Amino acid sequence: HRIQDCFNRPIASRPSAIISVLERVSFDGNKTMSVLGKLSNLEDEKIALSYQMGQHYDTTPDGRVVRKCLNLGSYNYLGFADDWDVTCRKDVMGSLDNLPSSVGSSRLEFGTTTLHRRVETIVASFVGKEDALVLNMGFNTNATIIPTLTARGDLIVSDELNHTSIVNGARASGAAIRTFRHNDASNLEFILREAIVYGQPRTRRPWNRILVVVEGIYSMEGEYCNLRNVVTVCKKYGAYVYLDEAHSIGAMGPTGRGCCEYTGVDPADVDILMGTFTKSFGGMGGYVAADRRIIAELRRECAGSAYHNSLSPVVCQQIISSFQVIMGKDGTLIGSQKLNALRDNSNYFRMRLTDMGLHVLGNYDSPIMPVMLYNPTKIAAFSRECLKRGLAVVVVGFPAVPILMSRARFCISAGHTREELDRALKELDEVADLLKLRYARSTFG
Ligand code: PMP
After folding, report:
1. How far is the CA of 258 from the centre of ligand 1 (A)?
2. Domain span including residue 27
3. What is the ipTM of this complex?
4. Distance in angstroms (rounded) separating the CA atoms of residues 373 and 392
5. Are 94 and 64 in contact (CB under 8 A)?
6. Above 50 in pLDDT, residue 48?
7. Can you give the residue ranges of the Aminotransferase class I/classII large domain (predicted)?
C-alpha cells in the first residue's frame, strides 16, 4: 500500500505462490499447530468441526474458530525445532541465561564469537571440507555468496527448478546465466559443451569460470539430485559445482551428511557445499563449506556476511546441540534413531499415498512429498478440506510451479508417530475421493 501511495498508481498484486487459507498459525510444541481460519461462515464451520473432530477445535473470545492441526508442512525433518528434551531444554535454554540474544554486530566487526567459530568447525568436519562460513540466513547465503564467487565474464549454469535464493544470487552476480533441464545431466553436458565451444557471446573469449548450481533435494519436487552424473560432467568440462543442501543436509544419507553421502560422491568433487540450519537442525542461518582458501576469501568479500548482523549466539547453541545429537557425541543413539525414523516415516507415507492412487512426485527416502492436484481450482479446496480434518498442509500454485501443475506438499518428520500418519492417511483418502484426485489409479487402470 505504501508503494502505491508513493507512486500514486495502483499496482496489480502478484499472486502468492504458496496459497494459504490460513490466517495465523502458532506452534503448540510437538507437531501440532493452531490455525486461525479465515473461512467465511463461522457457524457452519463450527458445526462441521465439532462433528468431525471432537475436541480438535476451540473458539477465540471473539468467536473465531481455532483448529488443532497435525503439522504436515514444516521442514522440521528431525524434529529438533521442538524437541525440548533432546536439544532445547538442556543446552539452549541454559544458554539463554549466559548469552546475549544478539551480538549487535556483523561478522567482521564484533559479531564473531567462539560459538560462531565452533559452528563453522563442526559444519566443515561434518560435510568433509576444510572450512566453513556461517551466515545469518539460508536465503542470504545463496543470494550473496553466489555474486561473491562469480562476476561478469563468468557463466552460471543453473538447474531450471533451483530455489529463488539461487536465482536472486545468480542475477545479482552480473555473470551470464543459462539453465538446464531439471536434473538432466545430458542436457547439462550439452550446455557446457556449447559454452566451451562458443565462449562468451560476441567476443567469443572463453568464459573465465563456469559454475554449475544444483540442489540436494528439490523442494517443490521432492527429488534428489542426480549428483554423480552432474559431477562427472562438470569434471569433464572443468566447471565448478555448487550444491545447495538446504533440504538434504541432516536428512539424507545413513549419517545425515546429505546428498554426497547418499549418492556416494566424494565431497572433494563438489567445490562449494551450501546448506541451511532452518530445516533438519531446527535453527536459523546458512553455511558454505569449501577449501580454506575459498572460505577465507568469502569471509572478507561476501557482503551478506561482512555487513549483516551475525547469527544469534543462542541459535548457534541450538545448531551445535543438534549436530552433537546427530553425530552421537552425547553418547546416545538418538541421532541415528531420528534419521532412521525420518526415512521409515517418509517411505511409509509415500507408499501409502501412492497405493491410494494419488500422483506423488519425488524419490523414495525423500521427506518431501508433493501430491499433484493439477487443476488450480482444487488448491484452496484441498487446503480447506485438510484443515477441516485437522491436517495442516502446504499447497502450491502458480508462479512457484506451472499453472496446471498445482500441488500439495507434505513434509514428513522423524517426530511424526505412525498413529498420526495413519490418521492423516485416512483423512486424505476421503479428501482424494471428494476432490477426485486419484489420477495415478485412473491412468494405470
Ligand atoms: N535453498 C533452498 C533450496 C531452500 O528451499 C530454501 C528455503 N526453503 C533456502 C535455500 C533458504 O533457506 P532459509 O529458509 O534457511 O533462509
Report:
1. 15
2. 2-71+334-444
3. 0.99
4. 16
5. no
6. no
7. 68-427
